[in-house]
What does this fold into?
Amino acid sequence: MYGYKSNFTKMKKALFIISSVLFLYSCKNGNKNEEQTTTADTTQTQQLDPQKQLVGEWQNTVLKVTVNTARNTDSTGIVDVNEQNWADVLKTKPIKMSFTEDGTFNTEYRNLKDEMINGGSGNWYIVNDTLVMNQKQPDIVSTFYKVAFSNEGTVELSGVVDWEGDGKVDDNYMGVLKNISTAK
It folds into this structure.
């Protein structure tokens, strides 16, 4: 009887994992069939599909972070930058991000001499109004942002992150990015 329960438990775990993967895959690809069968207003559908809207190159224009438990203390720090004061406050160029149709992304952090000082890459997808970014390089980190597109070619990302790298996901992040794909 012990072996039966052990195998049953293993089967339940395997079914749970398979179900989870299928659910996430269906969330990522749920609209494919609808897009293929609908011929009317295809352009409008593509413009409203957040997965397609995010494809391209983006640059931060606004960054507001409330750092809770700053430096592992009870104090709170605030980072509040825009295009005008970015270089003075952060001593870097604005962060650039690129999102590709195949679901991969890259981030670039450059110093004021335009030298690459940090970056990341991984996979991304959107479920409802949430951007999921699974970074693979240089560290494995998953972040979740609420996404809000504007008519001015910008997107606002907001969420809770580990901004200062203290191991606690407790910092409130809000960033506005402008699409620079068409500006080239």
